[in-house]
Structures are given as C-alpha cells and as structure tokens.
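Q: Make up one entry.
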Amino acid sequence: MFPTVATVIEYYVLSARWEAYSFSLSMIAIVEAARSGDASFPFFREEYVLNNTIGTLLIPYIALLDGITMGGGVGLSVHGPFRVATQRSVFAMPETAIGLFPDVGGGYFLPRLGGRLGVYLALTGYRLTGRDLLRAGIATHFVEAEMLENLEKDLLGLHGATAIEVGKILDDYHANSKAESDTVFSLQAHMEQINSLFVGKTLEEVFSNLEKEGSEWALTQLKTMKKMSPVSMKVAFRQITEGASKSLQECLKTEWRIGKRMLQSDDFHEGVRAVLVDKDNQPKWKHSCLEACTPETVAEFFAPLPAEDELQL
C-alpha cells in the first residue's frame, strides 16, 4: 500500500546543523575510500535514481526546506512539485569550492531558474535564505517555521490527496505567513548584472565581462570565483549550458559520468583537505587558472563510460 502523500522534511535548526556536519564527514570518507580504490559509486547511483524518482513521482511530493538545503538535500527537494521554504531555510550549491560540481540534477534545475541566476549560484556558491528561495524559484511556497507542525498534520491527514488539494493547503499557509514579507530579494539589485555579465560561450568570457564592467560588486564576484577549482567551474559551466536543453534523466546520466571521474580527481581530494579537513581554505588546485584547464580536459569528464558502467534510470 503506497501513501497518498509523500513528504520530506528538512528538519529544524539542530538537525540542519547535524546534516551539515554529516556532509563534511561523508565527503572526507569518500576521499579516503577513493584513495583505497572505492569512490562509493553505489551510494551515488542510488542517490541519482532517487532524484529521478522524485522528479517523476505520480503522487504529490512535498519537501519542507526548513534548514540547510545543500548537496544531497537539494536533490531531495528541487525535483518535486511542492517545495516549502521557511525563515530558517539556507540554500546553496557550494561544490566548486571543494573541487566538485553541482550534481543531484543541478544541470537540470539551475538553468531553469530564469535568466543567468542558476549559472551565478553554481559558480559563486552564493547562499540564499528565507524568502530568497521563493523569489529565486527554488521554493514554490513560504511558510513560517512555527506553522510547520500544523501544516504537516493537515497534509498527512489527507486521504487520496490530489495535487490540487495539496496545493490549496500550501497556498493557504503561504498566504497566512507574514514573516519577511517586507523584504526584497537579496540579489534584486544585481539581477541585471547577473543576466548581462554571466553570459558567454566560455567561462573565460564571463571572467572578462566582470573585469571589464569593473564595479565593486563585479570584482567581488570575480575574487570569489578565483578561489574555486578552475576545472570544477568549467565543468559546471558546460553542464548547466547543455542542461538547459536536456531532460532530467539526460542530466543525471551526464552527472553520473562527471561524478565518477571527479570523485577520483586531484582537485576533489585537495578541496576536501583544504575546506573540511585542515580548514586552511588554501587549496592548491591542479590547474592554477582557467586558461590552464583546456576544453579537452573538461571533455574527459563528459565522455561516455563503458556500457555496463552507465547510469540506468
């Protein structure tokens, strides 16, 4: 017997902090496993299959993003039709800072946020909070955290629920949530710059756009990105560019190819060391700059795998 409503909870502040801590431990464990010849691919295969299941589920699926939503938490939420943010929500795709890329279907949902916002979030790791998630298109509703207990009871009390019925309940709670209603999107003042500067056929063009524009904001974004892994940024830029015209399934299969290679890369191991282990935040990337990372190097991450190793969805 299947439930009529599927609900995923991004738990409260204490659990959110534990999730972030657990993420650090899991990344360290993956690096150690990769060095011994096991990059935990079964885990990622199951994760991507789950992401696809959420994106194709026929029953209503509601994700409550009440806390930190990063990494695997993104994949558990963004592909469902109902995504509820609260004033405690924190969303980011910070993977390029540790030599990874925005996976769990990032190639699919990021280019669909509108304009160049998805590219910006992937390259800079910028954090969105509270109603920002709603304004960015990551969340479909905003509900005050104090109302979640009652919201859960109302949702789980539905029998034979349709998407319309679920939507009505969420709409009602959203309408009655006034927290942060007087605030504006934290990136609103820079959306024109994001849409005009984070464009180009190559990542080098984006860097050039920012340098030429020369405002304090543009140079700050440039400084932030120069700290990231050059190969991770180039892979993410191509991933999101191509993902705009791909299905979720095609994106996940591409990300599986990328992930199998990137988890064993020097930059991932170095990024985890610098950010999560030693915490000196001084990674020594394999490629010292964008120009040192050639298109051929990037293409290797996207190349087909042997048929038996490809992701089956």
Remarks:
- Strands lie at 6-10, 61-65, 68-69, 82-85, 90-91, 128-129, 141-142.
